[in-house]
Design goal:
Elements: H1 9-14, H2 16-28, E1 37-41, H3 47-55, E2 60-65, H4 68-77, E3 82-85, E4 97-103, H5 112-121, E5 123-134, H6 140-149, H7 168-178, E6 181-193, H8 196-204, H9 209-214, H10 218-235, E7 244-256
Helix pairs in contact: 2-3, 5-7, 6-10, 8-10
This protein binds S-adenosylmethionine (SAM).
């Protein structure tokens, strides 16, 4: 088992707007009357948690994440909120919430049936489970990274196994077993990036991270990154003004109890 380095919070927040828009869209799709308690699972540095707090200022909101650096930053930026450093699979299901929310997190966690069952146990009656996950595996940038990784560094061969993605139908089958009312949608965000390098940087603080964690020498990291950038340039044509459209596919689902 290869250990993963902690998150680079600064780099993650460099693309705060692109990363937070899905939380805004997911929150606006939730129909729960005056929720009193909300948990944000995989809250990161608290960006998604603030969207919840903005819509429901009177609710008690807890942010939970298993990354020390993410929780440290959330505590520093939003000291009045409650932050828990823990793995979602270790959460005590005797404490329940009106909304169990998770943005851009579940792809990092294996066994989504087990995970959804665990999150569902945290939902109060008349509450909701609301999740967004990037469909990174279906995006050209994923192919750009995998092509750069293949053949040259054996330790990168199995990195994709870290991630878990399924088709929308998988999530519908799991959720419809639990809930009578399930809403699902997919959005392709068209992020306008300053350059191809910006796509690389945005990817570096998420999908590319486990690859970089497995490369130990600076030379290898540099060579790998250059190869990824070359592939990104091939996959995403620049516009006339040199900016680059970076389509980013995300799956949303909300299930009501
Ligand atoms: C891409 S960030 C999302 C942060 C924030 N929710 C947002 O919308 O930008 C994913 C977060 O999930 C957390 N995470 C991954 N696996 C987790 C687990 N098993 N339990 C709790 N948090 C986890 C990571 O530490 C990271 O902060």
């Amino acid at each position: 088992m290869v250990t993963q380095n902690d998150w680079n919070v600064e780099l993650y927040l460099k693309f705060r707007n692109e990363r937070t828009q899905p939380s805004i869209d997911l929150v606006s799709g939730i129909s729960v009357e005056s929720p009193k308690s909300i948990i944000d699972i995989g809250c990161g540095p608290g960006n998604s948690t603030q969207v919840l707090a903005g819509r429901w200022p009177a609710a008690g909101i807890t942010g939970l994440d298993n990354s020390p650096s993410m929780i440290e930053r959330a505590k520093k930026d939003y000291p009045s909120q409650e932050w828990i450093l823990a793995d979602v699979m270790d959460v005590d299901s005797s404490v329940k919430y009106d909304i169990v929310f998770s943005n851009a997190t579940i792809q990092w966690i294996p066994d989504h049936k087990q995970l959804i069952d665990a999150m569902w146990k945290l939902v109060n009656d008349n509450g909701a489970l609301a999740v967004q996950m990037p469909l990174y595996n279906a995006m050209p940038v994923c192919g750009a990274v995998e092509r750069a990784a293949s053949g040259r560094w054996p330790q990168l061969d199995s990195v994709m196994e870290i991630f878990t993605f399924h088709e929308p139908g998988y999530y519908y089958d799991v959720l419809s077993f639990l809930s009578e009312k399930v809403n699902m949608w997919v959005t392709d965000y068209l992020h306008i990036m300053d350059s191809h390098k910006s796509i690389l940087e945005m990817t570096k603080s998420a999908g590319l991270k486990p690859y970089m964690d497995r490369l130990k020498s600076e030379d290898d990291k540099h060579e790998f990154e250059s190869e990824v950038l070359r592939n990104i340039k091939e996959a995403y044509p620049a516009q006339e003004n040199r900016r680059v459209i970076f389509p980013f596919k995300r799956l949303f689902f909300i299930a009501y109890k």
